[in-house]
# Entry
Amino acid sequence: MNTTSAARHDAAPDLGPGDADTSGGRFGRFGRFGRFGRIAGHPLGWSLTGLLGIGLVGGVTATGPGPVPLLGAVAAVAVYWAVMRRVARRDVPEIARRGAGREALLGGGIGAGFVLLSALVITVFGGCSFSWAGHGFVPVVASAATLAAGAAVTEELMFRGLALQALEQRWGSRAALVVTALFFGGAHLASPGATAWSALALAVEAGGLLGAAFLWRRSIWFAVGLHFAWNTTLQLLGIPVSGHAGNGLLAAEVTGPAVLTGGEFGLEASVVPVVIGLLIAVRMLVLAHRRGNLAPGRRARR
# Structure
């Protein structure tokens, strides 16, 4: 259970959560390049560099055919490693290979359980029903898993790996969690059927939950596993993923009010996963605090 946390402290024993790696000077090797070095070494500089790089990779590969999204995920990890090691000048225990499989499986179990529990509650209250879609097992599962893997890796590297860690270095973990959660919800306003409510719902149930998951485990793979299982389970149930409908193993028929079912946007705009996600996120934050994984805000550091 503590492998990730131990790896983080072994890699940088003198640094706390949210602290910069000061090896080689405040801005590392970039300090010799004057203003460019100061900009590149600043959290805003390296986070924007990484966001642009991974965003470009994701934009090109996210909806590509066959294994293209998976190749994009591999490229995104390479970009992340390069930016963190060469620009931010810090270690990257959050993407360590050791324990990655266990963290991803643990996150995946929570993600799948979260979606299935939400769908069960909505069904019990008469919000929807399910029937076999008949699209074919292997093609549907392969397509859903491939697309979900690409999205999960790129989005977690961008929002939790780069944005959250950069912001918490300046303002602390709690403020970083709130800001990145709101940005995560806002980023889905362009999705089909999106509304102000769906964006807020995603900010709480997804942005908040995934951010809390990362702060608890300090592992990108844990957050990726949760995100991947979430998206995959939704599609296999025949429920739109953030407004995007796709072929599933089941077909979902919505019969209840939008506040219960999420309407056209899908289950993620339902009040049910908002409540469940918030409860899980609070528990994860408590566990993160007990582990000493929360960086204090600027006032607390003084």
Remarks:
- Residues 3-301 form one domain.
- The CA atoms of residues 163 and 271 lie 27 Å apart.
- The chain has one domain: 3-301.
